[in-house]
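Good morning C.,

I know you're traveling, so I'll keep this short. The sequence:
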Amino acid sequence: MKYSLLLIGIASALVANGGDLAKPALRTDPSPASSKGSVPAWFQGVWSRDWIDIKGKPRDESTLVRDVQTPILYGDVRIPADRPSFPHANSLADLTDQELSTLFQQNGFSGSTSLKGKIASWTFDIIYPPPNGGDIGRLEQVGPSTVYEYAPDNSWMESWWLLSDGDGKFLGVKVTTFASGVERTDRILTVAGDHFVFARNRSKDLPPAKSFSDLIAKTHANRATIIEYLDCELSYGLVRGGKIPWEIQLSTFPWKEGKRLEFANEIAISASTGKLEPRISVRPGEKWTFPVNTMKMDDLKKLFPTRTVR
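The tokens, ready to paste straight into the viewer:
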């Protein structure tokens, strides 16, 4: 199946009335004006997937899915509910071959979103599994907090539920690298209200394959290569609503769950300009951009309270 948008669930509240379906009022409030994009206000925010139906397979209601959608950038994390937490590990190298195999079913991606009418498409600037086609879906807004997403060929359907509209507070940070004439996305941070998704790319893009198992079989990958394949982080968490600031709650690196997002320490507010910038020196070939920022200065100071650059 083509990877589809990010998250959400709760079936819609359509009410039968004399044979007609009465839909609740849809969310159409305008978004803040400081970040332009093709994502309508009703689709911006934090989504949780309730379920997915794939033809020929049982309905999946157990996978934990969180999607943070800003006016431009998005981040999506999908973790099987039965995936072990591996409290003994601090890196992929600490896992046995069998433990590594339990990470094959994780999923996640980050990039940009565009909508034309009801058709949405998402770029995979960073993607956890091997690429296997694009991501295009037909969206149906069936309530103020519920969206159905359909495959173009109707081979699957997802139900998404709006956890938070972000209160109009969105931030997107993108770090790219340039080497050998090629620009490549290295990190993306998307924030909507109190929720965030952070994506960190692996060192090399994976070749197309149906799955990690398929890729490993095709390439006869050894343990070191498998670790390279899996070395891609997608983490979802809460900025201030967790036990600690920037607490990671779901991650393709299980040992990071419950810990602080270290990338937040690399972002600062310039004392001279009041704008966001990297706190540390930028590496050669690296470029930082902030394509989304609807935050007020007070909001930014709460997100990055002790990271002032002079």
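Safe travels,
E.
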